[in-house]
């Protein structure tokens, strides 16, 4: 990993640490201080519209201790039927961060669907690096996620 990438990841880790310390949701989900997942984006829209859409504050569901918003009642119904299918991997934390064994903020605008699963990353250079070999990084993140899922982001920092 290059030193620029490491510095970017560590700076982002500090930012997410400060935000996560006041998080209302369980530490397994990347949520705002009010418990909102995906910063209010509709998780189903990534799959149905091929792009993130802002959710309506009146159309919500709770999953994994966080609140998800939806652009339509139809999207909410699809999510409610199979939430694990639509919720982002690694609780919405950065997929590259999970591969490194840390929890970084996942940016809803930096996403990719691989194998019918939604993955987020923290910053454009990180997303670009992750996209260079997603299969390897997913394998690494899957292996590490079980070790870090219940750990607060601040407790994972070097």
Low-confidence stretches: 13-23
Instruction: Give the oligomeric state.
Output: single chain
Portion of residues in beta strands equals 15-25%
What is the string of SSEs from the N terminus onward?
HEHEEEHHHEEHH
What's the quick description here?
The chain is an alpha+beta fold.
Structural descriptors:
single chain; 158 residues; alpha+beta; two-stranded antiparallel ribbon; 7 helices; 41% helix
Question: How would you characterize this protein structure?
Answer:
The radius of gyration is 15 Å and the shape is globular. A hairpin with a 2-residue loop joins strand 3 and strand 4. By secondary structure, the chain is an alpha+beta fold. Residues 13-23 have low confidence and may be disordered. It has helices spanning 3-20, 45-48, 73-81, 83-86, 95-100, 124-131, 134-148, and strands at 41-42, 53-54, 56-63, 66-70, 107-114, 117-121. The chain has a two-stranded antiparallel ribbon with strand order 1-2. It has a two-stranded antiparallel ribbon with strand order 3-4. A two-stranded antiparallel sheet has the order 5-6. The chain contains 7 helices and 6 strands.
What is the element layout, followed by pairings?
Elements: H1 3-20, E1 41-42, H2 45-48, E2 53-54, E3 56-63, E4 66-70, H3 73-81, H4 83-86, H5 95-100, E5 107-114, E6 117-121, H6 124-131, H7 134-148
Antiparallel strand pairs: 1-2, 3-4, 5-6
């Amino acid at each position: 990993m290059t030193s620029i990438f490491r510095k970017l990841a560590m700076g982002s880790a500090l930012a997410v640490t400060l935000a996560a310390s006041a998080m209302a949701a369980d530490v397994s989900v990347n949520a705002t201080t009010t418990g909102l997942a995906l910063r209010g984006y509709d998780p189903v829209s990534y799959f149905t519209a091929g792009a993130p859409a802002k959710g309506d504050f009146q159309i919500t569901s709770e999953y994994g201790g966080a609140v998800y918003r939806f652009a339509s009642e139809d999207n909410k119904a699809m999510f409610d039927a199979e939430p694990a299918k639509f919720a982002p991997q690694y609780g919405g934390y950065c997929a590259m961060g999970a591969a490194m064994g840390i929890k970084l903020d996942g940016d809803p605008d930096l996403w990719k669907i691989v194998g019918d699963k939604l993955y987020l990353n923290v910053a454009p250079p990180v997303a670009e690096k992750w996209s260079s070999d997603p299969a390897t990084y997913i394998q690494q993140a899957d292996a590490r996620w079980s070790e870090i899922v219940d750990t607060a982001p601040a407790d994972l920092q070097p």
